[in-house]
Write a structure and sequence with these properties.
This protein is an all-alpha fold and about 450 residues long. It contains 17 helices and 2 strands.
Length: about 450
């Protein structure tokens, strides 16, 4: 088979999207405390391993359109098990492209439970969630299932427009992150400890830059024509640029100063919002959408302190909020030249109703399924590290390594010498002054200090 320009672009786009997950590792890793940076990055990297394998075995089969499906919710996981029926090279490229979406969606969830999730529980959670939540939703939206033009929902209301993953990726990940937070609980000192601030803002900005770079493949990889690809490229530039400025404006008015973290977060919020709408709105619509998403997410991230849920790295405030905004905005801003018209372009409320209902369904479906998956894991294995491990840091406690070398032998800050921590021999002074005089100041055993 001849390698056409379209197939070459799909190869490049797939590589760009895969590169986004290491970019996310930098973005999230810089936002955590120094003593948990490696653990945070590992949660993204291991998602490549677990989800990549299940996608080859059964994930691609579950999300692929065919007549053998379960009530338009998911396809038969064994019809293409191990990709044994995918002999067309173009089909294999599409599977690879789809796999990168599944991987980063799972990785996005981890930011909600930074600094306190047990790594072994996370490794178990990721392939199950990708199988029972991501693959079915991908089939419903993109694989010819419930929300497609041939599905019950699509025929009853209107086919849902979600070009690159507003429902499947961002609402999905945001809701799953919120459910995990509610199950696992808040970090020690949440809302009070100033040491919860990001430890490496350059990492955050580097990660945001990689994400933006890869997002051009994320959005434009499935472009069908040169005209569509050009529109997607411009929209993927304009929306995050506008969202960044919107976020910084909120910070300037509310806090008196714009921040680097705000700029990076604004870019991501805009990218999230334009994802479902990238092929269906005009560049002016993309700018408007970006401004709204940047302002809304900047305001939403503060809600976790008022409502008391510890969404550590703002997965809910950015991905869920901007994902909903981008999905619903299609009902207003979709242009008739790209398909169904939105309300503001004379298309009536039909598409808007379909977009709203799809967003609500995604929230309910993901919340229920994530609860069914995560709650038993938490009760049987424990999804959270101990308080002592959290104080010592997830890097040292779970991986027996540190991101930074603070002096000889790893001394400095709240770290203890690596060897002493591994064998359970720690200094007599309490790690956390607030625990002075309590039983929690006693040295951890070797098993506790390195157990995952």
């Amino acid at each position: 088979m001849e390698l056409t320009a379209g197939l070459v672009w799909l190869l490049v786009a797939s590589a760009l999207v895969l590169f986004m997950t290491p970019g996310l590792a930098f973005f999230y890793g810089g936002m955590t405390r120094a003593k948990s940076a490696l653990n945070m990055m590992m949660m993204s990297f291991v998602a490549i391993g677990t989800v990549g394998i299940i996608w080859v075995l059964w994930g691609a089969s579950m999300s692929t359109s065919n007549e053998d499906n379960f009530y338009q919710i998911f396809a038969n996981p064994f019809s293409h098990f191990g990709l044994h029926n995918f002999t067309d090279p173009a089909d294999l490229l599409k599977v690879g492209y789809a796999a990168t979406f599944a991987i980063i969606t799972v990785a996005l969830i981890s930011g909600a439970v930074a600094d306190r999730a047990k790594f072994s529980a996370w490794v178990i959670f990721t392939p199950i969630w990708a199988t029972l939540v991501y693959a079915p939703l991908a089939f419903m939206v993109w694989g010819g299932g419930l929300f497609s033009k041939d599905g019950w929902f699509g025929q009853t209301f209107a086919p849902v427009i979600d070009f690159a993953g507003g429902t499947v990726v961002h609402i999905n990940a945001g809701v799953a992150g919120l459910v995990l937070v509610l199950i696992i609980g808040n970090r020690k000192g949440f809302g009070k400890d100033p040491n919860h601030r990001p430890h490496n803002i350059p990492f955050v900005m580097l990660g945001a830059a990689i994400l933006w770079f890869g997002w051009f493949g994320f959005n434009a990889g499935a472009a069908a024509t040169v005209e569509q690809a050009g529109l997607i490229w411009i929209n993927t530039l304009a929306a995050p640029a506008a969202a960044m400025l919107g976020w910084l404006a909120v910070e300037r008015i509310r806090d008196g100063h714009p921040t680097s973290l705000g700029a990076a977060s604004g870019v991501v919020a805009g990218l999230v919002a334009i994802t479902p709408a990238c092929a269906n709105v005009s560049p002016l619509g993309a700018i408007a959408l970006g401004i709204v998403a940047g302002i809304a997410s900047a305001l939403a991230v503060g809600l976790k302190f008022k409502l008391g849920y510890d969404d550590s790295l703002d997965v809910v405030g950015v991905h869920l909020v901007s994902g909903v905004i981008g999905t619903v905005a299609i009902g207003f801003l979709a242009t008739p030249t790209q398909g169904a018209a939105g309300l503001l372009y004379g298309g009536g409320a039909t598409q808007l109703v379909a977009q709203v209902l799809a967003a609500l369904f995604s929230v309910a479906f993901t919340a229920l399924m994530t609860l069914i998956i995560a709650y038993p894991i938490h009760k049987i294995l424990g999804f959270r590290i101990s308080e002592r491990q959290e104080i010592a840091g997830a890097d040292l406690s779970l991986h027996a390594e540190t991101a930074y070398e603070f002096g000889v032998g790893g001394h400095g800050g709240s770290f203890q010498p690596l060897h002493d921590m591994i064998i359970g021999k720690v200094a007599a002074e309490p790690v956390d002054p607030s625990l002075a005089g309590t039983a929690k100041t006693r040295p951890a055993t070797g098993k506790e200090s390195v157990g995952a």
